[in-house]
Write a structure and sequence with these properties.
There is one protein chain. The chain is mostly helical. Helix content is about 70%, strand content about 0%. Helix 8 packs antiparallel against helix 9 and helix 12 packs antiparallel against helix 13 (about 245-260). The radius of gyration is 32 Å and the shape is elongated. The N and C termini lie far apart (about 90 Å).
């Protein structure tokens, strides 16, 4: 081993590598191959030690756990290869999810990888049972890259803001991110996210909780406009009646849907008669029947 290191050390100091078929070139190739094989054997021993430590002393073993996917296995640049596992902070930290530091990537055979992943999942369940939700989230997010499970662990521990950031940045689910903020009582942040991504009905509900009725009305009107543009007159009528308290406008929405929506026309007609009955608008109901009869005669429906 010393000879191989001496040879590779000499090759590093040379200005240009020797021809591959020369004696020096063949010696350097042998030294590099020898050291690579020695490094792999050392890593295999280290992984076996890790597996044993995870079983005998999981709290200690978790500090040395090797990530297999997700941000824990990514980074910027390549670190010098080594044969020992370094220690890690096992508390969940959003700052670790972006990589940012050089990584020494280990090649792990499939059998060992599956064994370790199975052990990691068992440890994550153990952490959940012990109420150590941030440690469980660390295992799921940084060791396994299973962000949906990390989110669930964070929510169980009431770490709603961090769970929301995972939803937003890692799972690309803006609605669930906003729901998470709302669930955690972070209403101002949630309403901003709802509106930014077009979830106006949810924003209106939060504005009501924040005792801001004017903002709530504006959000509900945006929701009505959005649903009409999507051709959903039934939903628009529901919003007008139940969120804006305007049954007249709800009736007009149902009228529009009856006359112009091939998918919702029949249902809009049925709902318009139900709405007229709810509010006792009998004259409007009679006019509606007459209007419907004339429209059916004109269109043949």
């Amino acid at each position: 081993k010393r000879l191989a290191r001496w040879i590779t050390g000499r090759s590093d100091s040379q200005a240009a590598p020797p021809p591959p078929h020369s004696i020096s070139g063949r010696m350097q190739a042998w030294a590099a191959r020898f050291l690579s094989e020695e490094l792999q054997k050392q890593r295999e021993r280290e992984l076996k030690r890790l597996m044993a430590l995870l079983q005998s002393n999981p709290d200690e073993g978790l500090k040395f756990a090797l990530p297999f996917s997700g941000s824990g296995a990514a980074g910027r640049g390549i670190a010098p290869p080594g044969g020992s596992l370094g220690t890690r902070n096992v508390d969940f930290n959003l700052g670790n999810l972006g990589g940012g530091r050089p990584v020494d990537n280990w090649q792990v055979d499939t059998e060992m990888q599956l064994r370790l992943i199975r052990q990691y999942r068992e440890l994550a369940n153990r952490e959940l049972q012990l109420g150590r939700f941030r440690r469980a989230a660390y295992i799921y997010a940084e060791l396994l890259g299973e962000y949906h499970l990390a989110v669930n662990a964070l929510k169980r521990g009431h770490y709603y803001r961090e769970a929301a950031i995972l939803y937003r940045d890692r799972l690309n689910n803006q609605l669930e991110a906003a729901h998470c903020l709302s669930q955690g009582g972070l209403w101002l942040e949630a309403v901003e996210m709802y509106e930014a991504h077009g979830y106006f009905e949810e924003a209106g509900e939060l504005y009501l909780k924040l005792e801001q009725p004017e903002e709530a009305e504006e959000a509900f009107r945006k929701a009505v406009t959005k649903t009409v543009n999507q051709g959903d007159y039934l939903k628009a009528a529901h919003l007008c009646e139940n969120k804006l308290g305007d049954p007249r406008e709800a009736f007009r929405m149902l009228e529009r849907g009856w006359r112009s929506s091939p998918n919702q026309g029949k249902k809009c007609l049925e709902n318009s008669f139900e709405l007229l009955g709810r509010y006792g608008w009998h004259q409007e109901a009679e006019a509606k029947i007459l209007s419907h009869t004339r429209f059916a005669q004109y269109t043949g429906h």
